[in-house]
Batch of 2 targets.
Target 1
Amino acid sequence: MPSTTRRSRRFRRRLAAAVALVLGTATLLVSSPQQPAQAAPPSPDKALAQWIDRDTVIWKGAERSAAQLEFGAGGTRIRLAPGALTPAERAAYPHLASYPAFTVDLRDRHLAPDALRGKLLAAQRTADGRRATTGVQIPGVLDDLYGARAQHAPLGPVFGRDGRPALSVWAPTARTVALELDGRTVPMRRDDRTGVWRVQGARDWAGKPYRYLVTVWAPSVGKTVTNKVTDPYSTALTADSARSLVTDLDDPELAPDGWARLMKPAAVPLRRARIQELHVRDFSVEDRTSGHPGQYLAFTDRRSDGMRHLRSLARSGTSYVHLLPAFDFATAPERPADQSRPGCDLASYAPDSDRQQDCVGKTAARDAYNWGYDPLHYTVPEGSYASDPEGTARTVEFRRMVQGLNRAGLRTVMDVVYNHTAADGQDPHSVLDRIVPGYYQRLLDDGGVATSTCCSGTAPEHTMMGKLVVDSVVTWAKEYKVDGFRFDLMGHHPKANILAVRKALDALTPEKDGVDGKKIILYGEGWNFGEAANDARFVQATQRNMAGTGIATFSDRARDAVRGGGPFDADPRVQGFASGLYTDPNSSPGNGTPAEQRARLLHYQDLLKVGLTGNLADYTFTDTTGRRVKGSEVDYNGTPAGYAAAPGDALAYADAHDNETLYDALAYKLPPHTGAADRGRMQVLALATAALSQGPALSQAGSDLLRSKSLDHNSFDSGDWYNALHWNCADGNGFGRGLPPAADNKDKWPYARPLLADPALRPGCATLHSTSAAYRDLLRIHATEPAFGLSSTAAVQSQLSFPLSGKDETPGVITMRLGNLVVVLNATPSPQHQTVRDLAGAPYALHPVQARGTDRTTATASYAPASGTFTVPARTVAVFRRG
């Protein structure tokens, strides 16, 4: 069996292809469905039949004649007659509405609970006399029979006031369930109304390891198995997730000093949030000043370089740290003794060598590094970040991390990944599917598990998977005082599921729960692709659908416009607004002719204007063709650029952990002769398009320090060598650490090699310091100017405008008027003069923060009141304020 790491790499590539389709960077060819002249009988190793509720079965490919469900050793049958879907069933299963439907015979409906606890086949005698059979998908009927009653049942370990734990697991299809507790077996009792198995324990069970012994029919192997499996509702784990632990998260022994009295920084509304995206291990693993490199406790090292930098960002206006997955994931050995390390002197190789990536790749499957997007247990902290993965140290230390961030002035966001699991079926890394096979995973029409999310997809549209999402998020909020959640591939969730999360959080109060749930922020990836695309199965939590909910979605519009091209271009040199398109062209033929470049640059400027408004659908402005348009009428790869109903619906960003860092993207795209100082200036200008927008904005940690991953496009498994943050400028910014790993980057090596070999692209301390200081100046301006936090489309329409937009607009320059501010983004290599005649005579001056800032080039920006002319140096963003 392939390792999870190799499987993850394969699925990450599949995800990249899927997202390329979403972003319009690839073409999907779909053949028209055709009915063969003589359909072959369905295969029993597939599951083409779906039992959607106690009354109805849908069978793709069946004839519209009598059929039956068969189960049990004696071939007991449930009779099926041709029928039709009710309007409610059609609404619940739109993707199945065209398939033959069958009605369960009233006389046989009582057999359903027994039929669901073993091998189940749909059978039919075809018109030509053949016997057709197929497997049966059962999530719908399980929800119908048990879901409504089970969705409020407490699951996992629950401690009573007397200190006695009860353990409960939902396993309605199991023949038996027992508890393996500390080496002995304890029977569990089934509640036939809910399908929940429960056992009441004694006080001395606390702290003991356990697993469930689940005897169940497993369609993936075609037999009844007894699975020894951990608890999906685990609250603590032994090392490497081998056993769950009977743990009460309210145990005072697990509370760090001051936990109950923790004072958080003031909550910042989502529309004003400025977020740093950060990987726990990246943050400190190469920080020589940290006492706990690579661990949760690094965030308690107040004097470390990393924490000093986070505090400076917090003082400047960063409000949240978004942690990449820190729940229990499958791909990193948790004990240090089991973790492999590259056996080479990586620093000795040339900056453009392929030796580093080769050496790192040999240990990638067993090193301590992974982004963590391969969930194993959703509601337990990852053990590899703890000082001791065995037991509850990870619980205490995660809480101490939250304390450390809060005390630094930062609230904490968790990246959560409920859209898929690390594995399915009988794989050892499969938890949910070994307890209720075929329920928690999303199945395709033939019964195969959907993998469009990159891995084994889950089905939050099913009652108990949706419940798991809500229960898990609430646990992180209550028990770990997490201040926000970022949903990975949120578009694969039903909108209703994400709204249920919002409702559950809103019900949390400081008096009852110790947290104010209404102040917890939510955002996610609202991409629209895969088997759920275009609301095929349910109304999705996509960009368009989430508008107006107060839950933000990442906006790719301005990201692509500021960088240029798309994340999956064959030629990475395709330029954009902040990378020199038209105004400072490189030699890539992908940029087109000068006329084509100019036209594309002006369109990018329209996309950036929409982004600066918060991606508002109904905001009206004059575009670069001279037309009066709404944000929704500006094209983005065939879809509306503007989709938000209010500021806060769209989250702006110029880079994140996916794809090349911003510095690396600009390294590819800027002309090779561009000097280090100018690269830093273009970095700040690119970051400004998000930092100075309406609505929330996110940046990848280290981007203000020109963070590089040596041009790695997909560093999820590239180890510390490529991923670690370098807070000390003497260590460089990560550029030139060798060619990036071949698996996801080899096709770019011809472009990468000369760049990595160029010492001019490895910036020194002066450039790193000046870039970071200039970015922090922008954060201060955003934090202190109320006009950047407008709350409605009407307010944005009234206070924000682009006075020079139109046919005569300057390519490479955007001028935005916002309340008593004027912002000029000059992406060209020359100083620019922007004359706004309506402002002639008005007393504007460069914003005091920039006038007194460390960037003396920006400090030379000026305003001539007689003509209303703003003069801005090359590659500079300048903010002017009316006196």
Note: The longest helix spans residues 765-784.
Target 2
Amino acid sequence: MRSRTRTALLAVMGLTGGLLLTTPQPASAANLVKNPGFETAGGDDMPYCWKKSGWGDNDFAFETVADAHSGSKAMKVTLTRRTEGDRKALITESAECAPVVTVGKQYDLGLWYKSTTPDTSITLFRHDTTAGWQYWTDLKTLQTAAGWTEATVRTPEVPAGTDRIAWGVSVYGTGSVTTDDYTMDQVAEPVPDPVCTGTAEECANGRWDVLPTQNPVRSMHSVVLNNGKVLLIAGSGNSEEMFEAGTFTSAVYDPENGTYKQIPTPKDMFCAGHVQLKDGRVLVMSGNKGYPSADGTIGYQGFKDSYIFDPVTETYSRTNDMNDGHWYPSATILGNGDVISFGGLKEDSTGSVTAELWSDAEQKWLELWKVNQTWSYWGLYPSMILMQDGRLFYSGSHVFGNNIPGTGAAIYDYDANTVTQVPGLQRKDERDQSASVLLPPAQDQKVLTLGGGNIDSNPDANRLTDVIDLKQPNPSYVAGPPLPQGTVDLGAGKIAQTGDQGKMYVSAVLLPDGKVLETGGALHNRADPVYESSLYDPATGTFDPVAADPEARGYHSSAFLLPDGRVMATGDNPGNGSWNHDVSIYTPPYLLKGERPAITSVIDTEWSYGDTQRITVDRPIAKAELIRPAAVTHSSDPNQRFVDLPLSVDGNNVDLNVTSNPDLAPPGWYMLFAVDAGGVPSVAKWVHLDGPRALSAKDASAHVHAFADDLQGKVTGPGKKRSAQQVGPAVSGCDRHYGSANVCVPTDFPPAVKATTKARCDWLKANDYGRLKVNGRDDPLRLDPNGDGVACGKADVKAKR
């Protein structure tokens, strides 16, 4: 990982060359850019409506030159030395000069250029009516060109609150770029929405279908492979009986024909970590070495083993071991293809404080002394999201009980080996099994957290959401809109949620239309399923309730995007130890709007950073994006991301401008979607992003810009070296004095359950726990007053306790 770019300083400096014309050159009716050819002089030795901009340590020159594409003037920007930063000629950020734009519309930008450096791109800024001028995005990377070359690109839809934009060409490498004849036109109005192909209810809210064939394994890990199939990993499936028998399972599901193929699985990968490597193979780390002891004195144990699953051969092969055991570890791929992992439980049931680094170059886990260590305990399945400057954002979403000390969210800098707390996360100790997602597009660097609870204290799960803009100099969470409420089954049928009731075990899925589906969940620790789904729109910051999955989707459930644009949901493992093998498929409303656009050809499926890649489509599209396929478990997929691909459109030929920043889109296989003006996506094509590192946070900071640099939170460096974090054996929120290891009697019952034997036994009966053996002589929950070794018998319930 690379150290972050330091604070950007906007510099406006003198220009040596003057301009001759003085009559203002207005924008034409078809071109929204004023003085597009630099023919009219302005102040500060710059053309009218243009200004010098840039930052950092570099030597530069701005010149107006006679070597023009048309007319008599062009603008030349030269960097002769660069340590960091960029220079750009930018449309002046003023009401007089910056083009007016309309929210939700797109604009075609064009210019002519010559360039002696590949380190240059079209950069946009936007004026927010509340927050003022701010960086928006980088669009097209310009290739070197000795002669005049035309560059065109289509903007994303203009975000809410934006009334003007300014743009120009950034130069962030030594060399020169000469530009002329800028154009900007609003994209024509889309055709009317097609006629709905479903019922009115389906077209508004989508449709769930339960598949006729069940998932044959108790899978809590779901990975969408680069051939469109789905790897479903169960291991022992949270079944102590299967663990003792050595029965470890996985399956590969084929959405094309609805079939499952069971895969020999060498180890108990129950609650392992997993991530897709850049070549499409799946790295699976750690898993379950042992279940808790019957008396509750020993907790779960994580082994050190690590495996790679090959989608081609559909087999597992072993790698070298990790340095520690990690039951419930994080797994985040970095911009260079390495993988970093934190947290989880060691082989002795204590918490691992070891940071692990998988080397893409060496294809192995690095030795401990080669990996920077803060000796921090990040908990279980901590959500660690790669930022576009190479640092990691710990969002505050985690599993089991309380959050880490401090504010519950932080920015982790591997190079500096520091952790900086980030404020604003609401009720940070009730975000157990919440979901966190990097919102579309990844270029915006906004993260959303949803819901959560606490399996130790077991309150009603909450409706909280929080949003953070990681581009801000000192980012802080702000409260988002509350999750919509649905119905909850408390054991006597579904009733409407009330008050502040929300859900934990939330699934959040990025959709190709740029929205987020949140679905599934439960009100309490492995109990009381909540039936509610909604679509979150990052552009408006609002939720739209849609059809709910008819199946319970609580603990050990997952939901994920398929290449055809539908969403698949699997699993549910309530406290009584049972498993839901039914599979649900959600058809979003965008698939009920008539015919879909189609990508009829992809010229090249091997993409490099900074590329322009051409595709053909069968009809006009409004946007295209790369979506990284899911690798999800326990509400957690920190690698999920939606990367916008700015367009250059020529009829049915569309050139896609690929980001130059591997920290924004880590190397690997992606689903490429084309989306029309009505939000209807194509079926995805698979493309592989890799190649030379076109830029990094150190070497091409024009694409990183100033954000999250002057953090004001508490900063900590490496702590004292230690071997582990002490963790209680009841970390999973289950009282092991009762039943078997895969049965979870809550250590703390839901608030509505009185602390009496009868009330607790009635709740257990309503949730289908059946007969429960008492392990040992202790009865902390008073479920066996008569002491016969069986909890909640008839005599127990009649006892006055």
Note: The chain has a mean pLDDT of 92.
